[in-house]
């Protein structure tokens, strides 16, 4: 295992440049506030790089198989963003203002393409407490039921952040999300995928983004185009992209930011 190097702070492009209001005071930052249960959201520690021969890489799975649960083993699949230090509980700005945020966590690598640039350095290795939900028909059945319940509970709107770990694992699973967006008008989605354009899954995701750009805000990881991508950079690395303000201290968390759904511009994340 090799610790990856962190260097000085990166030059951040201001959120003002895309028409969002200037970041407010860092409310809750450092003590969690009402948006998060957790303390500092600074990128912490060094990410692990697994050897190419590590069984998790060879077999395509998490290094923490004991943290993978069948859907019936957990109380719910969709978890409030308040439990995630970078997400937050309720959106405070933009067109999704007032909408509660929920997250879904799948098994890293088992649901991801081997082409992912972070295949050997996935931050799942730094998340020993995350509950990964095993993917498959049971996940899809329970997920649909929970989305229907969220639609009933939050008819004005709610947000699902895909995926804290893991990825869109099949075209059928992508179709489930497209069908859900049609069936549940209150549903909005944001997140990132390592699926690539030109693959069946990547093209299916892109088609949903194109059809529902204001409700299915998925960025393609590793794509450094001006729009539609997300890239990982080292701290201090110069970039033409907007650096995630939750990492630079410009905002508290996703709930108080909104860039990922208010803008199409590619977002840069500091490696952590
Ligand atoms: S840019 Fe904003 S919305 Fe996107 S991940 Fe960072 S804090 Fe969350």
Q: How is the secondary structure organized here?
A:
Layout: H1 55-59, E1 68-69, E2 79-80, E3 101-103, E4 132-133, H2 137-153, E5 158-162, H3 171-183, E6 187-193, H4 200-211, E7 216-221, E8 229-233, E9 242-243, H5 245-248, H6 259-262, E10 267-270
Parallel strand pairs: 1-4, 3-5, 5-6, 6-7, 7-8, 8-10, 9-10
Antiparallel strand pairs: 2-3
Iron/sulfur cluster (SF4) binds at residues 244-246, 251, 254, 257-260, 267.
Describe this structure in words.
It is a single chain. The protein has 272 residues and is α/β, with parallel strands linked by helices. It has one domain. The chain is 20% helix and 14% strand. It is built from six helices and ten strands; from the N terminus they run αββββαβαβαβββααβ. It has helices at 55-59, 137-153, 171-183, 200-211, 245-248, 259-262; strands spanning 68-69, 79-80, 101-103, 132-133, 158-162, 187-193, 216-221, 229-233, 242-243, 267-270. The strands form two sheets. Strands 2-3-5-6-7-8-10-9 form an eight-stranded mixed β-sheet. A two-stranded parallel ribbon has the order 1-4. Helix 3 runs parallel beside helix 4. The two termini are 15 Å apart. The structure holds iron/sulfur cluster.
Instruction: Outline the low-pLDDT stretches.
Output: 1-32, 39-43
Query: pLDDT average, as an integer?
Result: 86
Biggest β-sheet: strands ordered side by side in the sheet: 2-3-5-6-7-8-10-9
User: Which band does the percent of strand residues land in?
Assistant: 5-15%
Shape: globular
CA(first)-CA(last) distance: 15 Å
Q: In sequence order, what are the helices and strands, one letter per element?
A: HEEEEHEHEHEEEHHE
Query: How many domains, in number, for the residues?
Result: 1
Major sheet details: 8 strands, mixed
Rg, Cα atoms, Å: 18 Å
The counted number of beta strands is: 10
* Total of DSSP H or I helical runs spanning 4+ residues: 6
Ligands, ions, cofactors: iron/sulfur cluster
Given helix and strand content, the structural type is alpha/beta
The percentage helix is 10-25%
């Amino acid at each position: 295992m090799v610790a990856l190097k962190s260097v000085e702070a990166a030059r951040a492009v201001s959120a003002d440049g895309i028409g969002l209001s200037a970041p407010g005071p860092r409310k809750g930052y450092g003590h969690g506030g009402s948006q998060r249960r957790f303390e500092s959201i600074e990128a912490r520690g060094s990410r692990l790089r697994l050897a190419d021969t590590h069984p998790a890489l060879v077999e395509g799975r998490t290094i923490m198989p004991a943290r993978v649960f069948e859907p019936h083993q957990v109380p719910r699949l969709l978890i409030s963003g308040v439990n995630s230090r970078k997400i937050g509980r309720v959106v405070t700005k933009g067109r999704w203002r007032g909408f509660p945020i929920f997250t879904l966590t799948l098994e890293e690598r088992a649901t991801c393409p081997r082409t992912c640039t972070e295949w050997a350095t996935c931050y799942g290795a730094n998340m020993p407490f995350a509950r990964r939900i095993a993917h498959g028909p049971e996940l899809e059945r329970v997920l649909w039921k929970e989305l229907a319940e969220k639609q009933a509970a939050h008819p004005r709107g709610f947000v699902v952040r895909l995926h804290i770990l893991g990825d869109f694992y099949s075209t059928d699973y992508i179709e489930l999300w497209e069908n859900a967006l049609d069936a549940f008008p209150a549903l909005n989605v944001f997140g990132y995928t390592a699926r690539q354009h030109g693959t069946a899954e990547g093209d299916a995701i892109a088609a949903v983004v194109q059809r529902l750009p204001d409700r299915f805000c998925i960025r393609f990881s590793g794509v450094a185009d001006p729009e539609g991508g997300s890239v990982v950079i080292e701290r201090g690395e110069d970039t033409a992209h907007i650096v995630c303000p939750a990492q630079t201290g410009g905002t508290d968390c996703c709930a108080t930011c909104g860039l990922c759904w208010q803008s199409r511009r590619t977002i840069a994340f500091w490696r952590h």
